Amino acid sequence: MTINDIINPDNLVYTKTKVMNDVPMHYCPGCSHGVVHKLIAEIIEEMDIQNKTIGIAPVGCAVFAYKYLDIDWQQAAHGRAPALATAVKRLLPDRLVFTYQGDGDLAAIGTAETIHAANRGENIAIIFINNGIYGMTGGQMAPTTLVGMKSSTSPNGRTIPLNGNPLDITKLLAQLEGTCYVTRQSVHNVATVRRTKKAIQKAFENSMQNKGTSVVEIVSTCNSGWKLSPADSNDWMVKNMFPAYPIGDLKDL
Amino acid sequence: MNNLKNQHNEEVRLMKGNEAIAHAAIRSGCDGYFGYPITPQSEILETLMELEPWNTTGMVVLQAESEVASINMVYGAASCGKKSMTSSSSPGVSLMQEGISYLAGAELPCVIVNVMRGGPGLGTIQPSQADYYQTVKGGGHGDYKMITLAPASVQEMADHTVLAFDLAFKYLTPTMILADGVIGQMMEKVILPPFQPRLTEVEIREKCPWATLGKPANRKPNIITSLALLSEEMEEINLRLQCRYREIEKTEVFYEEFSCDDAEYLIIAFGTTARVCQKAVEMARTEGIKAGLLRPITLFPYPSRIIRELAEKIKGILTVEMNAGQMVDDVKLAVNGRVPVEFYGRMGGIVPSPDEVLEALKSKLIK
Fold this sequence. Notes:
The complex is a heterodimer of chains A (253) and B (367). In chain A, 39% of the residues lie in helices and 18% in strands. By secondary structure, chain A is of the alpha/beta class. Chain A has one domain (3-252): Rossmann fold (3-Layer(aba) Sandwich). In chain A, α2 (33-47) crosses α9, α4 packs parallel to α6 and α5 (103-109) crosses α6. Chain A is globular. In chain B, the strands form three sheets. In chain B, strands 4-3-5-6-8-7-14 form a seven-stranded mixed sheet, sandwiched between helices. Helix content of chain B is 41%, strand content 20%. In chain B, β1 (4-5) and β2 form a beta hairpin. The chains are: A alpha/beta (253), B alpha/beta (367). Chains A and B meet through β1, β2, α4 and α6 of A and α3, α5 and β10 of B. β2 of chain A pairs parallel with β10 (223-224) of chain B, so a sheet runs across the interface.
């Protein structure tokens, strides 16, 4: 068997999705964003809804999400993505409308917009990247930063008297009548990537079927912000983040 | 409600300025209204909820959780090429400033109504014009301008709603209707604008090729953003905006003159204050004082040219506002020292009386 036999198109079992643009990403090596972007792009292609999808990008590391996925995008003010998505979906009820937000965007500055969109049961999908840190601005404390976790604005570790408790906003969202599907996943190995893909697909299907608000939290790594190698970041996440943010479905109606 | 027909067989109705805006929005083919209650403009949202336009034209009406959410819902709707609007009063409009700056930066058309009340802070629910600076000098961050219409009657509340959408889409810019608590609350006769159908999605795709409605296979993705990290790119956007603002200044100036032809003294006022000043001009004329009134209808673009021209043939100008003196700055810039420019204002929600204005005209200019 020669190399040409192997790269024969008949043997092709995997290709990059066409919904992913062929451009270099600004994300750090080891960052979870790239994997989640790819999953969203694959699902949009598989569901054949590229012409019916409107993504809402946040402020944060994913502010440039619109560079990577070949769909129509709106880039929101910090934290306001669910407000934009609310209007878009109400005006275009047959479209897939999803927001893509980090923990600072969704659980700090945008808490009101997030909770009220979910409570109204807007037929949108919210993809929530939780890495417990502000990546874009250089590693400051986030609402989901763990107690004891160091960041540039909690240099000696987060303490409850000074900084308050980490906010488990996904648990809160699961209690709202408007949410139909709330789940927490990760993308640190092949099995979890597959589970996350299924979760995002379900969220997108819910949006298309106007079932209510779906929230997919993806507990993620930020090796630059955490000052750890990608592999060590994964281990640290499993050991420290998962006990605080347990993986699994919180609600599935 | 007594609906009478006038001589042209048009239906004349009696309603509040706020109600007129709600009716005019539906009739102008508005796709979405997003708002939060605040006195003295809550009748806009209330009237829309009463009229239920989603059952007739399909217009979406939503009570948002805050003014911050409202203006960002407008951003989302406008990004889809939809005719969208919000309304509020001064403290609520302060909350919207971030969103307005984003709308201006992303070059999105929309209509924002500010039925002004007295400030600063929570202030009062009584009428005011103290948001002039915030509106025309850029209340949000960055170099941007907003077309600003200043209605002085219930009829203009209705007419300006239609005009504001036309201007917003012509120049791809947020457009403000800057009213005050008097115009919002008072009842007058109004002839509502004719019904325009909402645009179909095919029409929107044609008219707004930038709209994010979902990407067909044969075009590039549409991306609505106000972000450009490269300085050269950001300057390019700024230059494009400035160029558009100059074009607006050239073509969209609206104002009204009253007894200006032979005037020796000119009063300049907008909105409710202009109506008070019109009465003061009439009273001055009966006393033999040749007074005239210029009422700016657009506050941006400002009618600087006509003020400059009038300044050549008059002895002095009195600017009257329901604030501490804001628009008077623009009058002074237009006059550029040719004649004295004086100011008379009331604050805290007080509407000046025609007697006060006449007295101020005499004491400050005629002496």
